[in-house]
Amino acid sequence: MQFQAAFGPLFEILTSPYLMGLILLAIPIGMFFGAVPGLGGKLGIVLLIPFVFGMDPLAGSVFLLAMHAVVHTGGSVPSILFGVPGTGPDAATIVDGYPMAQRGEAGRALGASLGASGVGGVIGALFLAAMLPVLKPVVLAFSPAEFFLLALFGITFIAMLSGSSLTKGIAVGFLGIMVSLVGLDPHTGSQRFTFDQLWLWEGVDIVAAVLGLFAIPEMLSLGVKGGAISRVTGKMAGYDFRQVLQGIGDVFRHPWLTVRTSIIGAAIGAIPGLGGDAASWLCYGHAVQTCKNPENFGKGDVRGVIAPETANNSKEGGSLLPTLFFGVPGSSGMAILLGAFVMLGIQPGPHIALTGMHLVWSLIWALALANFLSVFVFLAMAPAFSLLVYVRGALLIPFVLVLAYLGAYLSESSWENMCLLTAIGVLGYFLKKYGWPRPPFVIGLVLGSIAEDSIHKALAIWGPTFFLRPLSLVFIAMIVLTVGAYIWRQRTAPKGREIHHDI
Fold first, then answer.
1. Which region holds residue 228: left if phi is over 0, alpha if psi is between -120 and 50, else beta?
2. How far apart are CA 239 and CA 224, in angstroms?
3. DSSP secondary structure string, 195-246?
4. Which residues, in sequence order, are bridge partners of residue 371?
5. Per-residue pLDDT averaged across 285-302, rounded?
6. pTM for the full model?
């Protein structure tokens, strides 16, 4: 019975031309968003939301996850060839990938990146599958009390790791919670912050909010900067197919490093808030510490490409764990994917362990298949992707803006959503301009209604004493430790060296 539950969804995907077609379509799209510096997986999900709106929840979620899973595979192209990271986590690949390209080994570096990404993604999916038997009883032990505190913990943790200011992160997260309260009170039916506007009775549309917060500010910023997406000039580093195969072979010549960093990356991904930057840099550091001849790192060592690239892709499997089962995104990209899941009619949370395991197994296999098939797509398209860094921003801006406004309108067939998109877009631009983190807003918006519903239920069952339940005390301690760890880290960090994540 367990075998059928696990492998039935794989057979269903493999025998469905529709689902396989969606995965094969998602792979080059995801690579495109990774290969163009400044776009990334978050913007990819945002722009594809209008296209999946109204689709079957399984098909839509498989398409978005497959696209998001291979973004870092494409991001290695500009990182290695030009020293320009396609996405934030790909910055670690530059340390050894770019020196390899400079000495004429670009093909080998790309091949190593490709092989490491494919293997890492598959191991990340297997990690998620292996954790399910352990996770299910833990999830079922959760009550509304723990779920409320878990939502607060997720917001606090992600806010802390979204920038150098805890105050800014928490403020943006709770602004998202306040916006989630707009609409009719689910318990009394009274209006809250609707200003007698009928279109706000069902709350702020997640699609319009996400589009406004990410797509609009990125395009405004690109317009202000002007010029090409990348300011790097010069000829593309040459490479041949034989070098690429040599690089893929390097991954299997260092099997223990590949497996080790894949598992570490998946484990880091499972911790809400750490995301790809932490996974890639920690695994790079681990490779330097544990490999022979560490003095070669930073000078063009292929192991310095393998370690961060396995982590970049394996962490997606790990980050799906808290996203699906607790509604707490494992990374900022998963925060937007969580909003897309909700838009498709999928409500993440503990109940998935009882009623949604078919979907979970389908997503696991979609993740593994996307990473495996991306190897072959990459081999065919890498030379074309390498030219994308020269795309002029002026050509991209109108296309993205049309998609954004179209998506906001189609999500509820409401013209008011376009006004909402503009207002949140202006807010998002100023948040980006002045260094305020944006992912906590989305997480607060998504988790706010869940937290509200959970605290109502917890108060109805236990009253204020629900804070004294054993698991509740554990989560309260985790929240306090998270804030304490942040304060300690800021006090001990040298001035000007505070940790900051580009979001």
1. beta
2. 35
3. TT-GGGTT---HHHHHIIIIIHHHHHHHHHH-SBS----SPPPP--HHHHHH
4. none
5. 77
6. 0.67
Tokens of 8: 């039935």
Q: What are phi and psi of 227, to 5 degrees?
A: 75, -160
Q: How far apart are CA 310 and CA 355, in angstroms?
A: 32
d(CA 386, CA 186): 51
161-179: per-residue pLDDT in tens?
A: 555 677 888 888 888 888 8
With contact defined as beta carbons under 8 Å apart, do 313 and 115 qualify? Answer: no
Sheet strands (E) in 402-450: none
In this predicted structure, what is the pLDDT of residue 275?
Answer: 57
How far is residue 97 CA from its own chain's centroid?
A: 23
Quote the CA–CA distance of 58 and 482 in Å, as a whole number. Answer: 35
Residue for token digits 């108060």? Answer: 459
Q: Could you tell me the two tokens for 266?
A: 């998946």
For residue 20, the model assigns a pLDDT of 92
Q: Are 205 and 420 in contact (CB under 8 A)?
A: yes
What token pair was written down for 11?
């057979």
Query: Binning pLDDT at 50, 70 and 90, where does residue 63 land?
Result: very high
Residues 423-439 have pLDDT tens digits of 998 998 898 888 888 77
The label of the residue with tokens 């925060």 reads 335
Here the tokens at position 61 are 């979620």
Q: Do 170 and 158 form a contact (C-beta atoms < 8 A)?
A: no
Return the higher-pLDDT residue of 386 and 219. 219
Partner residues linked to 61 by β-bridges = none
* Sequence-separated (6 or more) residues with CB below 8 Å from residue 184: 190, 191, 192, 194, 201, 202
